Amino acid sequence: MRQTGYTDEKKFEKEYGQSFRLTPVDDIYFSGVGLGDKGNRNLVNVLTVASVFILFIALLNLLNFTLSEVPMRIRSINTRRVMGASQSSLRLQMIMENVGFAFIGLLIAFLIVMGFQRSETCMNLVSGDISFGANAMLATVMAVAALAVGALSAVVPAWYSTSFTPAMVLKGSFGLSPRGRKLRMAIMGVQFCVAFVLAIYIGVMASQSNYIFNSDYGFAKNEVLFTGLTTEACQKKTAIRAELQKLPYVESVGYAQDAIGVGDQYMGWFRGNGDKSMNMQVMLCDPGYLHTMGLKIEEGRDFKESDSQTGAYILNRTMMDKYKWLHVGDSIGSRSEWGDHNYLIVGVCNNFRMKSVRNDNSILSVAFLVLDPLAMSRMGDRCYNLFVRVAEGHDKIEAKRGIEKVLNRLDASYGDYKMKFFDDALQRTYVDEFRFISQVKLFAIICIIITIIGVFSLTMFETEYRRKEIGIRKVMGSSVGAVVRLFAVRYSVPLVVSFVIAAPLGYWLSRQWLQSFAEHTPIYWWLFPLSFVGVSAVVVLTVVAQSWRVATENPVESIKTE
User: Fold this and answer.
1) Cα–Cα dist 280/268, whole Å
2) Least packed by Cβ within 10 Å: which of 28, 104, 164, 273?
3) Residues in the chain with pLDDT < 70?
4) What is the pLDDT of residue 466?
5) Looking at residue 425, what is its pLDDT?
6) Running DSSP on this structure, what letter comes out for residue 390?
7) Crossing angle of the two packed helices 431-465 and 178-214, in degrees rounded to 10
8) Over the stretch 495-510, which tens digit does the pLDDT of each residue have?
9) Radius of gyration of the chain from Cα atoms?
10) Burial status of residue 259 (CB atoms within 10 A of its CB: 0-12, 13-18, 19 or more)
11) What pLDDT is stored for residue 376 in this prediction?
């Protein structure tokens, strides 16, 4: 501030349209100031919630499996009580059994992570160092958490199985007691809630992925190939253009400083002062660039070859609307402020996606600039990227090979040109986001599978205890379909209640993730019924498969063995 001669911060902000800010060192990665500062706190929060989810799911399923074993162990547990064993010792034994299982699972998990580290395909899902040495503290915390999950998952079953009077248990069944039924139903409801939340979340992610690739960018991203040029090739631009335009599959050729839409950092200029100050993104290009990229001229004209001798600007519509004093045919600024770059505005192009969807492109002011020879000699030729638009109806793979062949022939100093598809470059722009989406999808699939296993376990528990009832129903004339419907309908109310609880949570979690994009898809209403139908169908099929086995058994055997 002192070097600029300003001591009044408000005065500086008003005159230059800029402001200073202080950022704590710990927050720099999340600030987005530097090229490598791509951190997003919303994503960190989502991943944290996902980590808690998976531990919670593990806890519930261990609890499910332990509870499913209770009917088989209840008699032996209470027999030991009659023989003198204390409740505390029996409960501790059950808890330590689950801790032992959790420890075995922990060892297997460590082996899986070690295998993950050695797989190139798997490592594409992460962007950091996941070695145990670099994350010793995290590995320790997760190990303790895994053992804690094992212990906690046995607390309720251990308490539950030893809370009955031994004489009652030894005399009959406890499985369908109101208390046991409510406990199992509560656990099942939580499982359904998690499944619904993840299904909604995945649906929103898939919708955003589709939006990123298929929404209108404002230019012809699907027909364009591009590559960087060497210094020698930059001196042969005219010859390269002439040779490429002879190819039947080449529609147009252009040169520019950068590729639009594939990054978040471009050259920015601040010009003017007071009420006529302007802040814009500037793209140096040649006269053929806008046509090659498929940008549309809405006012005035496109660049001409003659503009290379005089210099010229084409501005996007946002810039013209934002700075009302700009008009096609006028110079862009005063001589005192713009110097050699005070060229005429020859046209206005459509708004387009200059940066990634992490930014709000609707507010970006963009100026395409063709330099005159004097400015070119001072600044140097910065248009070292070649862009080629493939004609409609031609094979892009064949065009790619043909263009590379021409470039390698004309620039023997390099001889290894590889043209890139513009849409592939766009995909690399969102590598972090799509890596995250892949992580969550994998996590969600695993969690849903575990949830279904939990449902299968609870259904098995229920059918085993109602085996005699099923046999009597069949003897009295009930069909297999009626028995199956009996179990399937029982799960309808928990599914509906769980969905009502899960829908707001899924909506909130999805909104948190979408906040990392300035441009994003809406959360469509139909994702919610679709998620409900999808998860419910899987659950019902699981219930039907399990109940069908019991419903088709010989009822005489069921009654006799019960």
Assistant:
1) 6
2) 104
3) 1-23, 25-43, 46-47, 50, 64, 68-69, 71-72, 125, 127-128, 164-184, 334-340, 457, 460-475, 477-481, 483, 550-562
4) 65
5) 85
6) E
7) 160
8) 899 999 999 999 998 8
9) 33
10) buried
11) 87
Position 510, amino acid: S
Closest CA to 543 of 451, 483, 459: 459
Residues 6+ apart with CB under 8 A from 183: 67, 156, 160
- Give Cα 306 distance to the centre of its chain: 47
Model's pTM, two decimal places?
Answer: 0.72
Beta-sheet strand order (sheet of 344-349): 268-271, 278-284, 366-370, 312-316, 344-349, 297-300
Strand partners of residue 279: 270
For residue 4, the model assigns a pLDDT of: 47
What's residue 405's pLDDT? 92
Residue-level pLDDT at 493: 85
The distance between the two most distant Cα atoms of the chain, rounded to a whole number of Å, is: 104
How many residues are given for the chain? 562
| 212-219 LR contacts (CB < 8 Å, sep 24+) | 212/357, 212/426, 212/430, 212/433, 213/423, 213/426, 213/427, 215/519, 217/261, 217/352, 217/353, 218/295, 218/350, 218/351, 218/352, 218/353, 219/260, 219/261, 219/293, 219/294, 219/295, 219/352, 219/353
CA angle 437, 419, 215 (to 5 degrees): 40
| pLDDT score for 30 | 66
N- to C-terminal Cα separation, the chain: 88
Q: From CA 301, how far away is CA 349, in angstroms rounded?
A: 9
How far apart, in whole angstroms, are the C-alpha atoms of residue 302 and residue 288? 9
Please count the other Cβ atoms lying within 10 Å of the Cβ belonging to residue 379. 12
Backbone angles phi, psi at 40, to 5 degrees: -140, 120
Angle between helices 237-244 and 396-410 (to 10 degrees): 140
Helix (H, G, I), strand (E, B) or coil at 108: helix
Q: What is the pLDDT of residue 2?
A: 42
Secondary structure (H, E, C), 429-462? HCHHHHHHHHHHHHHHHHHHHHHHHHHHHHHHHH
Residues 6+ apart with CB under 8 A from 545: none
Angle separating helix axes 178-214 and 422-429, nearest 10 degrees: 140
Confidence at residue 500, expressed as pLDDT on a 0 to 100 scale: 94
Distance (Å, whole) CA 47 – CA 55? 13
pLDDT computed for residue 412 by the predictor: 80
- Which amino acid would we find at residue 282? V
